[in-house]
Write a structure and sequence with these properties.
Elements (H helix, E strand, L loop, with lengths): L13 E5 L1 E2 L8 E2 L1 H13 L3 E2 L2 H9 L8 E7 L3 H14 L4 E4 L12 H9 L3 E4 L16 H23 L5 E3 L7 H9 L3 E3 L18 E2 L7 H8 L2 E2 L2 E7 L19 E6 L2 H6 L1 E4 L3 E3 L1 E4 L2 E4 L8 E10 L6 E10 L11
Parallel strand pairs: 1-5, 1-10, 2-3, 4-5, 5-6, 6-7, 8-9, 11-19
Antiparallel strand pairs: 12-13, 13-17, 14-15, 14-18, 16-17, 18-19
Helix pairs in contact: 1-3, 1-7, 5-6
The structure holds zinc ion.
Zinc ion (ZN) binds next to loops.
Length: 346
């Protein structure tokens, strides 16, 4: 009888997301070149395997054995600092990476151009779809019907695919949702186009992930410090049997955009064991730790205060039994402003 090669491990991974690697760009979407180098050095020095995103996804889907700690590195928007600042560090460690580009913005001031992207692709990196023009995919334009919205959004995805194939000869069929925003309609369009799609809520994942709402850990502004990076890189997918979001009055919610009347959604997780359920802690954006109710295998949690207008998350973690490694699950929410209008970008 043989033991498993990767004993005690499950095939799982994390994805990191960056935007600018620069000190002169907006703080919320930037990491300094120094800190970025520290992140990469940590991965290199602590037995992480950095895989190209397409390879990682294929291995997971096919149930191939995977090393204990696998990471994929991604950059959204295709900023110039990825080429000038990040690339030399990534080359030094031989780490492949993925850049999600808006095809209409490539070559503009502050962005990489097609020659640079072609060069990156030629070195084994991946250039993928971030839509044509970086819209908020879930938002309808004024006077736009549902059918018109659908046509416009599908075109944002499919036209970017066509440009990638045309300019680079290939598209990996991977889509990063602008701002990490999606809803069931957006997910259905991505699926229709056979795109695996990535959001920006956090967490580790395994093959049971929603392939049109894959989590990534975003690093920008206050969320770039080493301690948090280390926790996130070592995180494992929460062993869940079921997840349910409701309005607190028994109505299940399928859309991350909360109805106007709902400001404190209830997140219910069904864990593998009652022992694990006892271990779970949950946190809401801007509110820190929030109370959990445990009943057998089930953990329910609800933010004590209203979630603000904008994007929010409820993160739940639990000790995994492996030292320094936490199970991590994240649920994503959007809320409009009190007058029913969409929130502006900060
Ligand atoms: Zn973006």
């Amino acid at each position: 009888m043989f033991l498993l090669i990767y004993s005690g491990s499950i095939a799982a991974a994390v994805i990191v997301q960056y935007h600018h690697v620069d000190t002169e760009t907006p703080a919320a979407t930037s990491i300094s070149p120094d800190l970025f180098a520290q992140h990469m050095t940590y991965l290199a020095d602590h037995d992480f395997e950095v895989w190209a995103l397409p390879r990682l996804l294929e291995a997971l889907r096919n149930g191939e054995p995977m090393p204990e700690k696998v990471v994929a590195i991604t950059f959204d928007d295709g900023y110039a600092s990825v080429y000038s600042e990040a690339m030399p560090v990534l080359q030094k460690y031989d780490f492949p990476f993925t850049v999600f580009v808006n095809t209409a913005l490539v070559g503009g001031a502050g962005y990489m151009n097609w020659n640079e992207l072609r060069e990156l692709a030629g070195e084994g990196n991946t250039i993928a779809n971030h839509t044509v023009s970086h819209p908020h995919l879930v938002r309808r334009l004024e006077d736009e019907s549902q059918a018109q919205w659908r046509v416009r959004i599908k075109r944002e995805m499919s036209a970017a695919e066509a440009v990638l194939r045309n300019k680079l000869g290939h598209s990996p069929k991977l889509l990063a949702y602008p701002y990490g925003e999606y809803n069931p309609g957006v997910q259905a369009l991505a699926k229709e186009l056979s795109l695996i799609a990535f959001a920006q809520h956090s967490g580790a994942f395994d093959k049971n992930v929603d392939w049109q709402a894959m989590p990534r850990f975003a690093f920008g502004g206050a969320y770039t410090a080493m301690a948090g990076f280390i926790d996130k890189m070592n995180s494992l997918p929460m062993p869940l049997k079921a997840v349910r979001v409701s309005d607190g009055q028994g109505q299940q919610l399928a859309d991350p955009l909360l109805p106007m009347a709902v400001s404190r959604p209830v997140l219910t997780l069904q864990l593998n064991t009652p022992e694990l359920a006892q271990q779970v802690s949950c946190f809401a954006s801007g509110q820190g730790r929030i109370d959990v109710q445990v009943k057998g295998h089930t953990v329910s949690t609800r933010p004590e205060q209203s979630l603000p207008a904008g994007r929010s998350r409820i993160n739940c973690t639990a000790a995994s039994g492996q030292r320094g490694r936490f199970y991590w699950y994240s649920e994503f929410f959007m809320r409009k402003r009190a007058d029913g209008s969409w929130y502006p970008e900060p």
